[in-house]
User: Fold these one by one.
Assistant:
Number 1:
Amino acid sequence: MKHNFNAGPSILPQQAIDATIEALKNFNNTGLSIAEISHRSAGWDEAMDECRALWKELLNIPDGYHVLLLQGGASNQFLMLPFNMLQTKAAYLDTGVWAKKAIEAAKFVGEVQIVASGKETNYSVIPQYKIPSDVDYFHFTSNNTIFGTEIRTDPDSPVSLVADMSSDILSRPVDVSKYAMIYGGAQKNAGTAGVTFVIVREDALGKTSKKIPVFFDYRTHIKELSLYNTPPVIPIYMMKETLKWLKSIGGVKEIERRNKAKAELLYNEIDSNPVFKGTAAKENRSLMNVCFVLDEKYAGKENDFIELAKANGIVGIKGHRSVGGFRASLYNALPIESVQVLVNCMKKFTNIL
Ligand SMILES: *Cc1c(COP(=O)(O)O)cnc(C)c1O
């Protein structure tokens, strides 16, 4: 058995994988693969409706919001968002690599004010910030996948609030009503790469006087129910099955409880084992991506730990090159048993050092 700590694409619920395999062989007893049918057929309409309905139910999305299922990843939203909402100036919080990319994209459309940056601490801390009231919107990244920091509360904002939640969506309850838009790539907690979720409040749109290319205009995809062009049917199906699994285990409240237990188990070991050290500030630690290194005394032994982990079925714990060390991603589908195996490995490593 493998213990999959990959940062994304990452572990998925087995039942979502199995259901997607079945749909690839024989969709809805049509005798055809899901890859072979029209995206305008009745069976497909229902699958897409079910997927949107699950989003609304799981996150308690209020009326007035739309769930769009698009392509191009979160990266494409970095540009699509300012096209739709940036008239003059937008404010961004710089908390790492993905935030930075969102900032660079927005600069193509208008002025960007960076309210605070964690750069000086190599993004190990979420900096203090104040949201200005003279901007079109405020954008932040709720979970910094690479640096292992997370903003787990929904900020109060005097302007439209927008969040990239690629790597912690569906990991806990979110007060969607506070946001003008929430978006992300599916390949962490919501399925597989190829589909991008956008949850957008309709009345936040249509406020800029700039011309928006048709395909880049959210209103096009609202009107066409995300069928303006051919949708990525396989990733959407997988998303639907992933959401179904989440609902079946008790939804975001239950998964938050499990995610907290998993993170606590691993952070406790990091904090009590003198060989390991966490890299993110304690008060900003992510429940999704746990970043840690070896104490300086053991520098150069990283590969020994990776090898020991590998021998125990653990995959995907090498840290991102900009932080080094290790990163264990504890996404929704990862069972606590896998975290226990990792913790046991850390204890074993300490004993044989
Ligand atoms: C993975 C990730 C992205 C990039 O998503 P793509 O779908 O590959 O464009 C953006 N933001 C965050 C926070 C991520 O974790």
Note: The pocket of pyridoxal-5'-phosphate is lined by residues 8, 73-75, 98, 141, 145, 164, 166-167, 185 (CB under 6 Å).
Number 2:
Amino acid sequence: MGPLYPADTLTLMTSYPPAQTVGEFAANLAAVRARIDAAATRAGRAPSDVRLLPVSKTVPQDRLRLAVAAGCTELGENKVQEAKRKSEELADLAVAWAVIGHLQTNKAKDVAAFAAEFQALDSVRVAEALDRRLQAAGRGLDVYVQVNTSAEESKYGLSPGAVPDFLRELPAFASLRVRGFMTLAEFSADEARVRKCFRVLRRVRDRALDVDSGLTELSMGMSGDYEIAIEEGATCVRVGQAIFGSRSLPDSHYWPTGG
Ligand SMILES: *Cc1c(COP(=O)(O)O)cnc(C)c1O
């Protein structure tokens, strides 16, 4: 699989064995949690201020059941169709589903039906579509505004400068509980460049807090960079491969490009 990855990704430095038993999932979860706690402590933060969101994209339901038995109570998915299917397959389990990838307005109905959280809000059109469906269902939804902190064209999310105006639009959508911000850092082996993305998101959040004290959350950091993210203030880290095992395809396969 090596040649499929850009040679300079941080995630390339580690390959993660797939967990195949409840015990292996429990061990991976405990190991990630221990590293989260240590990173928080190093940064002078309370470990309990950092939430671990396990990301289960591409992982089939039989293995998800093992992960839930090992203690996962919430799962993140970046594609709506896959998340919807899994939420139906695992309907007998108490799992809260987080949609963490780009949403098209025609899938808003699905998200409104099964998701507990949506972390990739980046347009008024999607906010409108979600709110309409949620109002009809009598539900609310926790949302994070996605920000493109690396200025890479292939990434979704608002530019940092567009965030204040966007936030002013959101109170019109009463079913959306805006919790904070989400980003994907640049894929780079250069730690300084990764860290810079996290700092940009933190500044966006700090400025927004002046206007709305409820916008506290920072969802940033994945398997390859979550410790850096925690040092920079992450309150939610989205970790897939370090819990479930390496994926066989490059990340570009899971993050469709374009807008
Ligand atoms: C896949 C994914 C993650 C987790 O990445 P890993 O390398 O598996 O830890 C985090 N955030 C988003 C938006 C993702 O799609």
Note: The beta strands are 51-54, 74-77, 96-99, 117-121, 141-146, 176-182, 217-219, 236-239.
